[in-house]
Amino acid sequence: MRYYESLYIVNPNYEQQRLDEVIKAVAEKVSEFGMSVINHREWGKKRLAYPIQKNKYGSFMLLHFETKSTENLDQFERFMVLQKPILRNQTVILSAKPEIHIEETPAVVEAAKEAVEETPAVVEAAKEAVEETPAVVEATETVSKEEESESTVETDLTEKEQE
Amino acid sequence: MAFQTRKKFCFFKENSITEVDYKDVKLLRRFITDQGKIMPRRITGTSAKMHRKLVRAIKQARNIALMPYTNTSTES
Hints:
The structure holds two protein chains of two kinds. Chain A is α+β, with helices and mostly antiparallel strands. Chain A folds into two domains: 2-94, Alpha-Beta Plaits (2-Layer Sandwich); 106-162. Chain A has helices at residues 16-32, 73-82, 106-118, 120-162, and strands at 2-10, 36-52, 55-67, 86-94. Chain B is mainly alpha-helical. Chain B has a domain at 11-63: CATH 4.10.640.10. Helix content of chain B is 37%, strand content 0%. Chain B has four helices and no strands. Chain B has helices at residues 11-14, 25-28, 41-44, 48-63. Chain A binds chain B through residues 7, 9, 46, 48-50, 52, 58, 88-90, 92, 95, and chain B through 19, 22-23, 60, 62-69.
């Protein structure tokens, strides 16, 4: 089994719906040629190092696929070149099977955060932080008391001046 | 006072990197000049094996517009 990675640039002026259509068309063509898709995702909108068809930006798409025969690779390349929405494409061979990309949904991120919070080191750090706070509170209290006493003295003085 | 030359080392060997990915533009940028030219091995100190892989990766990155072929000052 051979593994390939294809990175292609889609016209940046396309909205999400048309982008999805392009992705769908490519995915269908890949499976038509007897290749199986491993990963197919948006790599993000990036600034191009040089303008392509007067476009400064491009929506990058990353496609990983595997195939047994290399017969249809030329046809796949031909198909990609002929697509109008695709500005540029490049297919390279991979030495090892690519990892399956799992998109980070908000729920997954939250779960990860919770897992981090539960670790003992973090809990201990939090405890220490709590222990430190009373001292700080005391310090602030003393300061406020001093201020109060000063203010009372000042008021006395002002009263005397008024007399 | 002796003139000290800085010892050159292979960046990839130091960081135990065996493969160069053309998508890793941040890494590749270390090995090109301001003009966008690939820096020679005698300056970067990269090992011959890794330099070949590096050159390949930079050229692939250029093809897919991740890196410039040239970087002229007139460019806006």
